[in-house]
Every structure is written in structure tokens, then in C-alpha cells.
Amino acid sequence: MPQRHVGRTATFWRRAKWFMWSSKWFMWSSKWSMNVSIKILIFLNISIISLARNIIIIVPLIYRHHEIHERYSTSPIPCA
């Protein structure tokens, strides 16, 4: 009877240790993943901002180029 009790407490402690270790690991991993996700978000924000700037710069250029192209193609050109 006492032997079984000892076994139970041992399993309980094993489980408790495992639970503590797993919770510690979970906390550490969540902290690490949060740091990583924050870094990724910052990187994405920077890349999106730079992309937006490039689009803002490029789109009018393309539009202007297209406009100029159309103007010159529609304008009457004297044939040789």
C-alpha cells in the first residue's frame, strides 16, 4: 500500500516537473516568436513603405510616359 502511494507521488512529481518545464518552454518560445513576429512586422512595414514610395514615384512617370507617347503618336506627322 505505501509503495503504491510512493509511486503515485513520484509520477505526480514527474508530471509536475514536466508541466513546469513545458510551461517554461512554452513561455520562452512564445516570447521568442513574439520577438520574431515583431521583427518581421517591422521589416514588412519598412518594405511596404518603400514599395509605396516607389509606386508613388513610378506610377506618375509611367503615366506621363504613356501620355507623351500617345500625344506624339496621335499628333500628325508629315510623311516623307
What does this 3D model show about the protein?
- There is one protein chain.
- The chain has a domain at 30-75.
- The relative contact order is 0.04.
- The mean pLDDT is 79.
- By secondary structure, the chain is mainly alpha-helical.
- It contains one helix and no strands.
- Helices cover 91% and strands 0% of the residues.
Topology:
Layout: H1 2-74
Keywords:
80 residues, mainly alpha, rod-shaped
Runs in which pLDDT lies below 50 for 5 or more consecutive residues are none
Number of strands: 0
Element order: H for helix, E for strand: H
**N→C terminal distance:** 115 Å
Question: Based on helices, strands and strand pairing, what is the structural class?
Answer: mainly alpha
- Overall, the morphology is rod-shaped
Q: If helices are DSSP runs of H or I spanning 4 or more residues, what is the number of helices?
A: 1
> In percent, how helical is the residue content?
over 70%
Q: State Rg.
A: 34 Å
| Percentage of residues in DSSP E strands | under 5%
Return the average pLDDT rounded to an integer. 79
Largest sheet data: none
